[in-house]
């Protein structure tokens, strides 16, 4: 289902992937610095989640400024929260690369506003989190991650030039939040692995994301 989501004086293009059964939880998903919501990995993940009963709302927000992308992400979360068509009790935010930075930033900001209303967002999925610029490992983009308290899943390539394995493991060890890293062996930032098809890699990512979501939903329902 295609929708236009109001954002300032503009609209963001978005698509709902809707499961057959009425969903109670969903995932809001966005792309990295390049591309848009039709990036093949996002399309694949959205279809997989919807086929397993999870609503997925993915959106496009062009712009290379993280603060701008964060504002857009917030607008989408608000829109979903107030939606009459899909009454969700819980959402998870997810993004690829720069999109995951924006998602982390939204969660940190909303938790700091703390109007007792942050039960809606229950977790964060970071696909290829860009922890540092390529080859510039001295400056880590970890400030939001260290301030988040909801569960976080990282899916990263072990050969990602923007997320050195030991550096991410170091940041994760300092995080207060429940967290998990799934390494895609020998994958680069774009999740390409020599000798493996894109579909094969996506299958691994999609099943990891879904099983993590399911675990966290079950924890909540206990």
From TrEMBL:
Family annotation (InterPro entries): AB_hydrolase_fold, KANL3/Tex30_Abhydrolase, NSL3/Tex30
Domain KANL3/Tex30 alpha/beta hydrolase-like positions: 27-209
Pfam family, one: Abhydrolase_11
Superkingdom in the source lineage: Eukaryota
Descriptive protein name: TEX30 protein
Gene behind the chain: Tex30
């Amino acid at each position: 289902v295609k929708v236009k989501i109001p954002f300032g004086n503009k609209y963001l293009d978005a698509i709902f992937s809707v499961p057959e059964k009425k969903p109670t939880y969903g995932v809001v998903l966005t792309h990295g610095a390049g591309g848009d919501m039709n990036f093949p990995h996002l399309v694949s993940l959205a279809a997989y989640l919807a086929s397993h009963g999870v609503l997925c709302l993915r959106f496009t927000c062009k712009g290379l400024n993280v603060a701008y992308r964060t504002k857009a992400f917030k607008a989408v979360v608000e829109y979903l929260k107030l939606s009459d068509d899909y009454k969700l009790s819980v959402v998870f935010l997810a993004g690829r690369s720069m999109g995951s930075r924006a998602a982390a930033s939204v969660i940190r900001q909303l938790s700091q506003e703390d109007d007792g209303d942050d039960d809606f967002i229950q977790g964060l999925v970071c696909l290829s989190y860009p922890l540092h610029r390529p080859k510039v490992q001295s400056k880590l983009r970890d400030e939001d991650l260290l301030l988040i308290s909801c569960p976080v899943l990282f899916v990263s390539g072990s050969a990602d030039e923007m997320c050195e394995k030991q550096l991410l493991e170091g940041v994760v060890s300092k995080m207060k939040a429940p967290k998990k890293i799934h390494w895609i062996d020998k994958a680069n930032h774009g999740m390409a692995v020599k000798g493996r098809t894109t579909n094969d890699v996506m299958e691994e990512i999609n099943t990891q994301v879904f099983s993590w979501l399911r675990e966290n939903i079950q924890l909540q329902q206990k």
